[in-house]
Amino acid sequence: MPTEFISLAFPNASTELSPLPSPSVDPDYLVRYARALDDYDFDYTLQPYDSGGFDPWTMGATIAAATKKLKVIIALRPNTVYPTVAAKALATLDQLSKGRAVVHFIAGGSDAEQAREGDFLDKAQRYERLEEYIRILRRAWESAEPFDWNGKHYQFKQHSNRVRPVNGTIPVSVGGSSDEAYRVGGALADIFGLWGEPLKETKDQIDKIYAAADKAGRPASDRPRIWVTFRPITAETDDLAWEKAHRTLDALKGNQAAGKSIIPLAATGTAPQNVGSQRLLEIAKRGEVQDRALWYPTVTATGARGASTALVGSYQTVADSILDYVDLGCELISIRGYDNLNDAIDYGRYVLPRVRAELARREGAVSKQEGEAAVSKQGGETTAIVDG
Ligand SMILES: Cc1cc2nc3c(=O)[nH]c(=O)nc-3n(C[C@H](O)[C@H](O)[C@H](O)COP(=O)(O)O)c2cc1C
């Protein structure tokens, strides 16, 4: 499978660096943002979920209508939509977008956040419910034959779904870093989403996800594809990028101190319940920079509330760092910056082409080697080499 790129598409000009007070959706801005991702050859955009935020379904449908290739990932917490309704909504979006719908599941990492929308299950129960939910979606997408469901969390009779996904099914992603996340995602997900950790820790997590997939009886050819998320801070040279990184950190801290951040200062002092954030904070204690360019002060400054590890460096350094993760087996690379739209355009102009050119070069080199091997085996002429 190819290496693909994900980014967020934001609905207004508010950023963590320059937060606007109570920003509402600016439809023109959202369309411009989405088209920029499409034009600069990003493959997906995530529409995230939080209890107080904009609705990802309507945003996703708007993005799909404004773009041609960009796939739309709807973040979904099972407590917010009944599974048969979600199955139809996703299949409808898939038809509207000609096969570009993807769903990203969030079991729910915080009891307090879940309680804001009436969900009082504990985390183990939330993952158990997620497992049942994914099975119902797949069943509903499979055929229009009526079926009953008599599970622990859902029971219904004779549901029949006439809205089929364009390609028979819709990619299902699961995000998280707990054992429950590995178990459910390893068994059922097409894609498994991680936050950016150092190479060694990322490899450990991939091994656990693959082990869970093996345990669930999936063949090696059907393991979840790995998605990894960063917040790159990049510029023409490494020095300029580091200056930008420190300006970014100052702005994050300044906005927090002034009470302008969406992550209040008080929240950064309390321990997060989700394992993904706990891991980031633990790794941050080891030092500011890990591996080639993975930077942690943005993690500590925001209490690891969300994807927060930066990759700092020139366009080439950031491209090389991304390639380190590709070499590890990560196929979906999510990058979004702090200066949202400007950073997305910079990545599109300077980072994506570098990563793709290197991957194409390697593929060419492999084809060339394969061609040479085939030719020497046949004792033929080297002009038969398949290479552009
Ligand atoms: C790539 C990725 C994207 C995520 N998107 C969201 C999101 O949009 N909304 C949200 O509440 N949590 C999001 N999360 C957080 C986790 O899914 C969440 O904390 C999980 O339910 C429990 O985490 P744990 O298994 O690590 O403890 C995301 C996580 C990852 C890795």
From TrEMBL:
GO terms for molecular function: monooxygenase activity; oxidoreductase activity, acting on paired donors, with incorporation or reduction of molecular oxygen. CDD domains: Alkanesulfonate_monoxygenase. The keyword Oxidoreductase applies. InterPro entries: Luciferase-like_dom, Luciferase-like_sf, SsuD_RutA_monooxygenase. The keyword Flavoprotein applies. Keywords: Flavoprotein, FMN, Monooxygenase, Oxidoreductase. This is Alkanesulfonate monooxygenase. Residues 15-330 form the Luciferase-like domain. The lineage of its organism: Eukaryota, Fungi, Dikarya, Ascomycota, Pezizomycotina.
